[in-house]
Design a protein that fits this description.
about 70 residues, Helix Hairpins, about 0% strand, mainly alpha
């Protein structure tokens, strides 16, 4: 997921996607403890996607307050 895709999402889609990614991140962390991950870079990718979503939500909040 890139920033352009995140900008196009609605607020509801951002919320749902964040919840989905957070659950996936939790599952990967548990899997990392109990067994070897197929792709360790997946953790980093998901963390960055969550950060993009949170940044976009914050940007929209600040934009709404300023307007």
């Amino acid at each position: 997921m890139n920033a352009a895709e995140v900008h196009k999402m609605t607020d509801e889609e951002l919320k749902v996607e964040r919840e989905r990614l957070t659950k996936q991140l939790y599952e990967l962390r548990c899997q990392a403890v109990t067994e070897k991950l197929e792709n360790p870079k997946q953790l980093q990718k998901i963390r960055r996607d969550v950060a993009r979503i949170l940044t976009e939500r914050r940007r929209r909040t600040l934009q709404a307050q300023g307007a």
